Amino acid sequence: MSLFQLSEVKALLKQLDHYPRKVLSQNFLVDGNVLQKIMRTASIEPGDKVLEIGPGLGALTEALLNGECLVTAVEKDHNLSKHIKAHFDNNRLTLLEDDFLNLDLEKVFKSDDLSKKVKVVANIPYKITGIIIKTLIQLPHLFSCIVLMVQKEFAERMVAKCGDKNYSSFTLLTQVFSEAKIAFTVAPSCFHPQPSVDSVVIKLIPKQMNPDIDTAHLLQIIHLSFAQRRKKFTTSLKNHFLKEDLIKALEDENINLNARPQELTLDQFTALSKRLRPSSTQ
């Protein structure tokens, strides 16, 4: 049985008496070409360790196992978890019936030899895209690359350029912890049931953090700035830093005193975070 052909997916869902659950963002991939493009984007090789979040009916799982990967799959839905267990008799598959948000990924992979890091390859639930990405990109010691199917609009926020309408605090969070690029677009017709949005596959490479940067402090400044994105940088932070410190930091970095957060690059936020030390707060 093919796990990605539309007619067989429909028949399998009927056999399992399973109705795709919108609350879990269950839209199953029914395009073999897209599966192969995902595999190429992740540069899958035999022996790769792969984390798959939300395997669903197992189309991507099957492709990864056929590629001789060691797959750890996390499935929250009990019916689909039972199906995965019954369908795949493969000692290279470890299935965790759990909510990804409850997992301690350090413990999941603690016994592994991480001289070769884990790749994340998944068609993830769109409703929790943000928290999944935020979690994964902050673990560069575990993951070498992250290839995810996500909503196109969300991906455009992640890769937006400074000054663009989609440029946001999440854009900068993504830039702090990873290098991101959109690999290719996936039409709604490639899924069953068809989602009401366009999708893309995005590839992220986690960065090793610079020990000279206080990342928590940098992220706090970014968060506070974008909480009032239409206001000037100095106005957004006036309740958190002394006004004279804010003005001096901007002047020292040759940044317009009327600049708004969406007009500042990550390098500029990083430079300002070094000048606006926590001890400056009121």
UniProtKB/TrEMBL annotation:
The UniProt entry, under PROSITE patterns, shows: RRNA_A_DIMETH (PS01131), SAM_RNA_A_N6_MT (PS51689)
Tell me, what's a Pfam family for it? RrnaAD
Listed EC numbers: 2.1.1.182
Instruction: List residues of the Ribosomal RNA adenine methylase transferase N-terminal domain.
Output: 34-208
* Predominant location category: cytoplasm
User: Which InterPro entries does its entry note?
Assistant: KsgA/Erm, rRNA_Ade_diMease-like_C, rRNA_Ade_Mease_Trfase_CS, rRNA_Ade_methylase_Trfase_N, rRNA_adenine_dimethylase, SAM-dependent_MTases_sf
HAMAP family in UniProt: 16SrRNA_methyltr_A
Q: Which NCBIfam families match?
A: ksgA
Q: What is this protein called?
A: Ribosomal RNA small subunit methyltransferase A
